Amino acid sequence: MTDTAGPPVAGEVGLPILRLDNITKRFGAVSVLRGVNLSLGRGEVLGLVGDNGAGKTTLVKIITGFIRADGGRIFLDGKERRFTSVDEARSHGIETVYQDLALIPQLSVYHNLFLNRELTTGGFLGLLSNRRMRSLARQYLDDINVNIPDIDAEAEMLSGGQRQAIAVARASRMPGVKVLLLDEPLAAMGAREASLIIDLIRDMSKSRGISMIVVDHNYTHLFEFCDRISVIQQGAITWDRKTAETSIDELTEFMVWEYRRQVMSGRVEKVE
Amino acid sequence: MARRETAILVVAVVMFVYFWVSTPNFVGYNNLVTLSQFVAPIAVIGFGEVMLLTLGEIDLSSGTIFVAMPFLAERLAAHGLPLLLAIVLTVIAGGAVGAINGLITILLGLPSFITTLGTLFAIDGVLLLATNATEAGMPHGATVGTVFGIYSWSEILWALGLCVVMYIILHRSRIGLHVVATGGNRNGAAEAGVPVRRVVLWAFVMSGLLASLIGVIDAIRVGTIDPGNTGTTEMFYAVAAAIIGGTAMTGGRGTQIGAAIGAIVLGILYVGFTLRGINANAFILILGIAILVAMAVNVQLGRVSQRRGGRKKAT
Ligand SMILES: Nc1ncnc2c1ncn2[C@@H]1O[C@H](COP(=O)(O)OP(=O)(O)O)[C@@H](O)[C@H]1O
Ligand SMILES: [Mg+2]
Predict the structure, then answer these.
(1) What's the pTM value of the predicted model, to 2 decimals?
(2) Which residues contact B298 (CB under 8 A, 6 or more apart)?
């Protein structure tokens, strides 16, 4: 990357790192995304808000190459990309913390951290370099202040918060990360663990220049670390403001107003 | 060694000592050879089943592959191919049959229980049609035959070697880690980029390779091959050995060492009972009880380890 001149102002300098153009997706008869337009600036942290079932997770999984969009275009660094696999998206610097965390209960902390990017001795069989993975995992978790006493413990033995921390550590671990997608990364966390992850998010955007989309329901959290907030409703972006130019109250008011409008419109099918 | 394997090892040792003390000739040379020849095929077919059970899959056709593939080697040799080449081609063909199992399973999204139930009968049908249901004599070239079954201990030595290889693959290699990951949380593994369908396909291929290899070795040892055998007994023993040895059917955990010890336990019971003149029906009953006890112990150990905060060892 060439933007070494400190953290750029959100979404204003140059091309956005990521731009979605009219993304659509249906599952069977259900239209989940109905033309999502969204752009993410370099180093920007974008909060994505929306009711359950609004399509946030689906959108995240489309960006990571886990599911394919039906229509629309994705631009990364100004180039149109069609990722056909998670590996391919990763090789372009897109990393993800999935809502379900994608951890393997029976694998150790360090094997989970290196899952699908295992260090091996190379060769035909690909023997695991467990000692190297173990010590690198320990080192990385210490670096980001995540406290996991036993790195050999199986993931199923950890608390919900610890598991979430592992998933965040896994996604942020690689040096080449450009875009980090975090789907409800704070959901199972206590206050102390959450503040740790929030610090990590801040640090990754400020000192590593990583751009992020963070899905979360907690507006207070979002206003702490986001440069901008977008609301997705019924598969489309309906509201988009810089946090500096809006407030928690304004966002709350919008969401409540929208909620009332939907209730009042009752069961009438909306055509968009 | 993990707790599950230790538990079954203790059972095996206790049983061995019991028959040693109580049954004359149990540790005699001939009897130990018989024991080893009973154990080897069950263990090796079991290694493939462990891989599949760890994935949350199963191969019901493995025993039928074990029975059917030696006929291919016999035919190839009869057409003038050197025995070694015939064996190699047969083992590869076994892998291809496994690939068919895997492809049907992943492409049609069928449970492998159904897929391999179907292929079990299909393979058996092809075998009966192709052979007219008549037995054949298995060729055994000099050196090649000695290595592949004629030497008394060769079958168990193959089983030992394959146990080491399969252990390394499942517990020390990248593909093994992906097997555990896919079996433990298939969707999560896929989200992390693990090619889960390819992993499943690969495990079915392994099962086919192992079953056909040990099938040929067993056939050369016995000398005749009989298409009347469906191979389901061998398959069920292999699955039983895997389960008794500590592999769970729920996926995510498996051990080939456990399966090998499980096969030894079955062998000690079978050979010990035979030697004491106890009828074979009792063996079947004991086998049933052993599977139930093993499953109960498995579930119990799982609970204990969760309460204590888990085993230290990974994978
Ligand atoms: N694989 C799928 N098959 C069918 N429907 C799906 C699938 N994934 C998500 N959906 C549906 O799409 C809608 C949006 O889901 P999701 O993206 O998970 O929403 P959110 O993350 O905003 O809660 C929901 O109605 C959900 O039931
Ligand atoms: Mg979601």
Answers:
(1) 0.91
(2) B4, B243, B246, B248
